[in-house]
Fold:
Amino acid sequence: DLHDDWQKKICFEMMAELWRAGKSRLVKDIINAKNESERLALKPDCIKSDVEWRAFVAKKISKEHLVRNMM
Structure:
């Protein structure tokens, strides 16, 4: 049970770190995938739309994203 505000704050900070780490691993796997079918296989179950997934992938493999995240 999380009764105090500081406990809730710490819990949410930990959840945020885990979410960011998971997303970072996913983006790394997307970038390292050899082709579109490998990228499609990486789609998490919580994403139902292939259109949304492909838009997310396109954004993450774009030159702008890659250059911005290399700095």
Observations:
- The CA atoms of residues 10 and 42 lie 30 Å apart.
- The longest helix spans residues 5-32.
- The chain is about 75% helix and 0% strand.
